[in-house]
Amino acid sequence: MTTSVVIAVDGPVAAGKGTLARRLAEHFGYAYLDTGALYRAVGAKVLRQGGDPADPAVAAKAAESLDESDRAAPELRSEAVGLAASKVAAIPQVRAALLDFQRRFASHPPAGRAGAVLDGRDIGTVVCPDAPVKLFVIARDEVRAERRYRELMDKGEAVTFERVLADLRKRDEQDSARAAAPLKPAADAHLLDTSDLAIEAAVAAALEAVAAALKR
Ligand code: DC
């Protein structure tokens, strides 16, 4: 049994879920887990070993042996690792290997926090289907690509807007079409479109949605 309050924040690439999830965690004093970083760590590990991220045996082995140093790898936020993460994420054994860690984090947040905010693709549908609060964050493709493009430019990655848009659509397609825990809103998720919202307005809308869900 646990009394931890779980807030699930799901959505496609660069819709703003990471920023919102972090801000919600800060606001409530809850622990925060970026579950995409776990899949990225698996993808990066496979790439480092020269393996194919779509190979189930190789990817499962990497997921089962994941450690702190893998999760702190400096290349986690790169586009190449994002695409590899999306490939390993389609493999059921990889998802199974990461599931316990995520559920444990949600039910027993570190440092005795009273709750946890997890962001990802399947938190509201698979990892924490009983979460009292579920947000599904979306934004138009072009808006998401523009945000991601700026982020990569700021980091000095040599990218074009067209490339970023194409990669984002490819990743959404891979994440939505897979059989294992595909990207889709839970039936009881609150849809939040951040296309035309600046960060503070999006945070305010998210806080409102959380308050409404907790009242239910
Ligand atoms: O959120 P992100 O871009 O860091 O996620 C990287 C990839 O990991 C994404 O393309 C799909 C996968 N992922 C997933 O399948 N399930 C999650 N809960 C989180 C991420």
- What's the CATH architecture name? 3-Layer(aba) Sandwich
Number of domains: 1
Q: Which cofactor or ligand species appear?
A: 2'-deoxycytidine-5'-monophosphate
What average pLDDT do the residues reach? 95
Which sequence of SSEs, written as H and E, runs from N to C?
Answer: EHEHHHHHEHEHHEH
Helix/sheet category:
alpha/beta
Strand neighbour order, sheet with most strands: 2-3-1-4-5
Low-confidence stretches: none
Name of the CATH class: Alpha Beta
Which radius of gyration do the C-alpha atoms yield? 17 Å
The helical percent reads: 40-55%
Describe the 3D structure.
By secondary structure, the protein is an alpha/beta fold. It has a single domain, classed as P-loop containing nucleotide triphosphate hydrolases (Rossmann fold), CATH 3.40.50.300. The protein has ten helices and five strands; from the N terminus they run βαβαααααβαβααβα. The chain has helices at 17-28, 35-48, 56-64, 68-71, 79-88, 92-107, 123-127, 141-154, 161-177, 199-215; strands at 5-10, 31-34, 115-120, 133-138, 190-193. Strands 2-3-1-4-5 form a five-stranded parallel sheet, sandwiched between helices. α1 (17-28) packs across α10 and α2 (35-48) packs across α5. The longest helix has 17 residues, at 161-177. The mean pLDDT is 95. Bound molecules: 2'-deoxycytidine-5'-monophosphate (DC). Residues 13, 35-36, 39-40, 82, 85-86, 89, 120-123, 171, 175 line the site of 2'-deoxycytidine-5'-monophosphate.
Explain the layout of strands and helices.
Elements: E1 5-10, H1 17-28, E2 31-34, H2 35-48, H3 56-64, H4 68-71, H5 79-88, H6 92-107, E3 115-120, H7 123-127, E4 133-138, H8 141-154, H9 161-177, E5 190-193, H10 199-215
Parallel strand pairs: 1-3, 1-4, 2-3, 4-5
Helix pairs in contact: 1-10, 2-3, 2-5, 3-6, 5-9, 8-9
